[in-house]
């Protein structure tokens, strides 16, 4: 047997015995860091966090925790060619980061918007834009298990309630938006528990059949 054949045989055996490269799951990071921002938003909607007397009180959770680390998860998913995951995480990251800048700008006067009518106009435009985008994302991901669709539907409902509340000046809708926020947080927490359980060797939890096959 030649030296060349020995080398080739050894390389072939090493390839057969080498452990497969583990594949990461950026959705776990995305969901874990999504929850603090979502819970904070829900608490604000129901009046637990009074941003009128504590301007910018949501900023640390929304931007530094949720927005930033969901951006990290987005980049991670993109590098793994998990395109749909990257797109969904990316739009959520875009919302949290831009919402943080909106809150900071409106509470500090950065954008030169001081009158109540101007503030309401900016808020309506912002909420309507993201409502349309999240409805599109919901429809585009109907091939996912139904638990994801339910979570996104409650996200849509939250934006719709907030938009109507701001447009009509009806603050009584905000506590309802807080409830829908807590519901989609609970749904995505369920997905997170399932993903971590499987990552640690556990069995998958029921996710439901997709609405579109």
UniProtKB/TrEMBL annotation:
Q: How does it sit in the membrane?
A: Multi-pass membrane protein
Name the UniProt key words of this record, in alphabetical order: Membrane, Transmembrane, Transmembrane helix
The protein here is known as: GPR1/FUN34/yaaH family protein
Q: Its GO CC terms?
A: plasma membrane
Q: Where in the cell is it found?
A: Membrane
Instruction: Tell me which InterPro entries the record gives.
Output: AceTr, Gpr1/Fun34/SatP-like
Q: Which family does it belong to?
A: Belongs to the acetate uptake transporter (AceTr) (TC 2.A.96) family.
Record-annotated membrane-spanning stretches: 27-46, 58-78, 85-113, 125-142, 147-166, 172-193
Q: Do you know which Pfam families this protein is assigned to?
A: Gpr1_Fun34_YaaH
Gene Ontology molecular function terms on file: acetate transmembrane transporter activity
Primary localization: membrane
Q: Is the keyword Transmembrane in the record?
A: yes
Q: Which domain of life is it from?
A: Bacteria
């Amino acid at each position: 047997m030649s030296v060349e054949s020995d080398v080739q045989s050894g390389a072939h055996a090493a390839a057969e015995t080498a452990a497969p490269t583990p594949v990461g799951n950026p959705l776990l990071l995305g969901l874990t860091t999504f929850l603090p921002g979502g819970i904070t938003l829900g608490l604000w909607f129901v009046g637990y966090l009074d941003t009128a007397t504590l301007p910018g009180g949501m900023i640390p959770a929304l931007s530094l925790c949720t927005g930033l680390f969901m951006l990290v998860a987005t980049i991670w998913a993109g590098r793994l060619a998990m395109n749909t995951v990257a797109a969904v995480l990316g739009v959520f990251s875009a919302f949290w980061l831009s919402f943080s800048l909106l809150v900071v700008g409106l509470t500090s006067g950065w954008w030169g918007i001081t009158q109540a009518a101007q503030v309401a106009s900016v808020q309506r435009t912002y909420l309507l834009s993201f409502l349309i985008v999240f409805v599109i994302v919901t429809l585009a991901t109907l091939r996912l298990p139904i638990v994801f669709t339910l979570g996104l539907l409650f996200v849509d409902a939250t934006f719709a309630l907030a938009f109507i509340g701001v447009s009509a000046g009806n603050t009584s809708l905000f506590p309802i938006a807080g409830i829908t926020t807590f519901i989609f947080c609970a749904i995505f927490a369920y997905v997170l528990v399932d993903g971590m359980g499987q990552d640690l060797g556990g069995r998958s939890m029921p996710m439901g059949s997709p609405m579109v096959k």
